[in-house]
């Protein structure tokens, strides 16, 4: 039987579920707190035995998980998800470029590198617009820009943050949609679960982490086609694909490579951690 490892820097509900599911199935899964690691990258064979046959990367820190994945792949260890997927999904700009290049419907997006050009971009898109950091999750530092005065305040605040990543201005049109979006859990290019995520009364964002609620979403065939095409161009793996319902059909606005799934699991009753483990075992046997 293959040996699995689960890499984390914080144990959330999802990590507990994966660990408990492996235990119930009698599968050896080694939980590894990556904060306790130091790894020799100039010796490809050193430390390999720690991680088993397949490593499931579940770090909350995107940059920590990304670099760890690169190190393990350098040692010949397969990781879910691989670096190629992590690097795209963790950067909203790279995701948008790939979606547009492959004809996937996605919100109009403009990138600027100065406050002055960002303001021009927002005016080109029109109010209201949305400004996001290129990295990040849980809806943090995402702002709805309703007019020029608000735009100037947000951009000035960004300029004062001493972080070059926040001087890459990722600006999108505000999609006219119901007060919800769609989250699909896709594993190995198969849609496992799909839910609506409704925003809380106090917030326009639909993140479950911000108090949103989940309901089962029955996808149409057209929706399924777009979701599966998105998974295919990203590279498969274990993904959370997020879509919004526009007047012209769904648009894909984000793809998550370290997806939180407790909301989808609670709403649908589907054994998502079991599916992740099955996928890991399948990869280990190849």
From TrEMBL:
Its cofactor is Mg(2+). It comes from Thermoproteota archaeon. InterPro entries: ATP-grasp, ATP-grasp_RimK-type, ATP_grasp_subdomain_1, LysX/ArgX_preATP_grasp, LysX_arch, PreATP-grasp_dom_sf, Rp_bS6_RimK/Lys_biosynth_LsyX. Pfam families: LysX_preATP_grasp, RimK. Pathway: Amino-acid biosynthesis. GO terms for biological process: lysine biosynthetic process. It comes from the Archaea. One of its GO terms (cellular component) is cytoplasm. One of its GO terms (molecular function) is coenzyme F420-2 alpha-glutamyl ligase activity. This is Lysine biosynthesis protein LysX. Belongs to the RimK family. LysX subfamily. Residues 96-281 form the ATP-grasp domain. PANTHER family: COENZYME GAMMA-F420-2:ALPHA-L-GLUTAMATE LIGASE, RIBOSOMAL PROTEIN S6 MODIFICATION PROTEIN. Keywords: Amino-acid biosynthesis, ATP-binding, Ligase, Magnesium, Metal-binding, Nucleotide-binding.
